[in-house]
Amino acid sequence: MVQNIDAAVFQRMMIHAHAAINAQKQPINDLNVFPVPDGDTGTNMTLTIGAAAAEMRKKHYDTVGQAAVGTASALLRGARGNSGVILSLLFRGFSKAIKDKETMDGRDLAIALDFGVAAAYKAVMKPAEGTILTVSRLAAARAAGCAREDGSFEGVLEAAIQEGQEALAHTIDQNPVLKKAGVVDAGGKGFLVILQGMLDEVRGLPMPETGEDGAVPNDKADFEAVNVEDITFAFDTVFIVRKFKENTDLDPYRQYLESIGDSLVIGEDDEAFKVHVHTNTPGSALNEAQKYGVLELAKIENMRTQAEDLAAGRHVQSTDDLDAIEEELERGPAAPVHAAPEKKFGYVAVCAGSGLEDVFRDLGVDGLVGGGQTMNPSTQDILKAIDATPAEIVYVLPNNKNIIMAAQQTIPLCEDKKVIVLPTKTVPQGISAMLCADPDADEGDNTAAMMEGFANVRTSEITYAARDSDFDGFAIHQGDYLALEEHQLFGTDQDLSAMLDRLAHSEGHQSAEFISIFYGEDVTEEQAQQAEAIFAAACPNAEITLLAGGQPVYYFMISAE
Description:
Oligomer: single chain
Strand order of the largest sheet: 15-14-11-18-16-17
Structural class: alpha+beta
Distance between the termini: 63 Å
Radius of gyration: 26 Å
Number of helices: 22
Helix content: 40-55%
Largest sheet: 6 strands, mixed
Shape: globular
């Protein structure tokens, strides 16, 4: 049993944990019960801990306490969605317990896990059992008991995971929705995958290398053993293609790739295939692949320049550097890193869609953060927009219930501006809040007016089913139109006009005085006008407004006041 760990081991543990959850990201996503396409738990937790893994790769820490603090800071800024924020809170408390430790043994680990649980429970307004909170709490309790008997780091972590697995299995009985769907809690599962990845690193097990589709791993070139002149085909090319049909014959494509490259590996299942090939014409390989299916993911690296960098002792660039490079470009010299206060109030809103962005700009929003359903922005993304807002007090409109917690994490991070997060759960709520903003009011009156403004808004949305599901009495099939009222499932239909008509005749719209219809990027002008006509006929006493929102995912967002 490994008795204790130092900073270097801790850093590797975080990198391993990210690889572990990345490999299981989709199975965790699939545990989400609600069939609406959203920023799924596995994706959010992977992106969140990915920020910490990137930090651990870049920096060297002398003590385990310093490494833990660095991890917590990166997680806080990289947190996405509620599951990502709770994960960051667990590690924030964790880091506070060991910030002064040079190494960490089992007793230190048990205390750190307990501190993490306390921090998470304290931050969550209404902690619910049968979630990641339950799993982490019971795992920490078992760790404490084990530490009194066995002080080894490995033994305590193993005991925590074992108890966590039992707690995870019980979540299905603690949440009626999970019980009906026959699944365990996705956040709790993700947390245990992360802990298991950390334990696997301590035990010297290899990190997962297969993609989430289970395809053949990407064989990395051994640049130390290769001279630049020996590299016949320069580009290490890896990509995944979703097949048009099952039983696709890939032999002709295999022969084509062998004619333009070497080191060819093709792995496939019934639905997709993954290609690894060295070639001088990666574009040709990708173009030819599209005869067999839809390209989903691609990675291309220049092995010659990588070999030259390695020989010269320089950093070897890879696609892993793309996020950092893009961040530097976004930070460019022309973009203000921090704006000094020039006015009393400023506003930051989260939304997706050019039409919705225009609406918020017209209402006086200073900063827009791209995101919403399926793409939850991180705390750092929101913090950047706040920093660039030239105001003493900055209001943040998350406009999505899964972004509110990430937005709230910016409050202690902003040193010279006061941040007020209004808990807007939909874009129409955010728009109504901005309509009530008063630049001449004092802070209390302005906040109260905006809160009152969006409290009276009822939001309905029409999207599609991302997966088959039996939810809340509805037998839902992938691709069905779904109507939601205040985030609750209103109904499903295979006909969009029929779905709109049923929604227009609902009680909330029949009693409304004002109805605004925002149509999305996949809706034609003709379909939008038809939706307006349906609501005008069904709601003759309401004033109907039709606007091009350009939002993804949702065909229509409809507000009623």
